[in-house]
Fold this sequence. Notes:
TF_FadR/GntR_C, GntR_C, mainly alpha, Arc Repressor Mutant, subunit A
Amino acid sequence: xxxxxxxxxxxxxxxxxxxxxxxxxxxxxxxxxxxxxxxxxxxxxxxxxxxxxxxxxxxxxxxxxxxxxxxxxxxxxxxxxxxxxxxxxxxxxxxxxxxxxxxxxxxxxxxxxxxxxxxxxxxxxxxxxxxxxxxxxxxxxxxxxxxxxxxxxxxxxxxxxxxxxxxxxxxxxxxxxxxxxxxxxxxxxxxxxxxxxxxxxxxxxxxxxxxxxxxxxxxx
Length: 220
């Protein structure tokens, strides 16, 4: 893929299209971190605002995931605008949460078996952020950290299809959680069980991880 600088103005949509092509062509794979904003600015010859808008476009489509303080990562090869996404858009919260748990049941089992030390660090980092935002009363930050925590577990499962399915569901869960939670008390109350899930994954106790995931789904 050529890195030819974009000549005409725009450009957020065209930059988004360029990044999408890089993802679809395999230059960036699921879980890969994108270059920094300055690097992307130089690569495409556009300003910071165009890069940020392009990332926003692809994030809304489910192809990218922005993790605060860490960077922007490839979340999907095709985005979340397909049949599953359309069904989720029309579904009740309880239905989406049920699908999420069915995915997480297998995800946490495989994460407990396949996780690496790097996976554990990513999961732990998101969990610490979840606690920080919960205790500071930041609902939006807490929801994002919660999503990042569970997504990091999905990455640890080492199954790209499960990861993409989970990210599509999580994209809709995020909207539902924002409507459901007006404060962070529920996240404070469930912090301990999330910490227990992390420990079960560390200890490679897949059955305990599954039981904890089921209990977590009841707290959402």
